[in-house]
Write a structure and sequence with these properties.
The protein has a single domain, classed as Dimeric alpha+beta barrel (Alpha-Beta Plaits), CATH 3.30.70. About 40% of the residues lie in helices and about 25% in strands. It is built from five helices and four strands. A four-stranded antiparallel beta sheet has the order 2-3-1-4, with helices on one face. The longest helix has 13 residues, at about 20-30.
Length: about 100
């Protein structure tokens, strides 16, 4: 499992101009099952994505498609972790990712 920490490099006015494309990118990877949760940071300096994939390389390839990254509006840091405890409702998301 991965936490993707996105940090904006430009004003939120520029970010907002690319938000529709970013949302379409997010939806693509929610549909594939790679993205589990996402949202903006407060204060609005970037966002966080909770993601699932077979490898860090896969997440890097996915994130390289983000319009914020493609247009040099944001950078990201990927943190990999192995969940060892969670609420029951979350357990099904962890199956097969030991």
């Amino acid at each position: 499992m991965f936490i993707v920490d996105i940090t904006y490099k430009v004003s939120t006015n520029l970010i907002d101009q690319h938000m529709e494309a970013h949302i379409a990118f997010l939806e693509k990877y929610y549909q594939s099952g790679n993205f589990i949760a996402s949202g903006r940071k407060e204060p609005r300096t970037g966002g966080i994505i909770l993601a699932n994939a077979d490898s860090r390389k896969t997440i890097e390839q996915i994130m390289a498609e983000d319009p914020f990254y493609v247009n040099k509006l944001a950078e990201w840091n990927i943190i990999e972790f192995k969940p060892t405890k969670s609420v029951k409702a979350f357990t099904t998301l962890l199956d097969g990712n030991e």
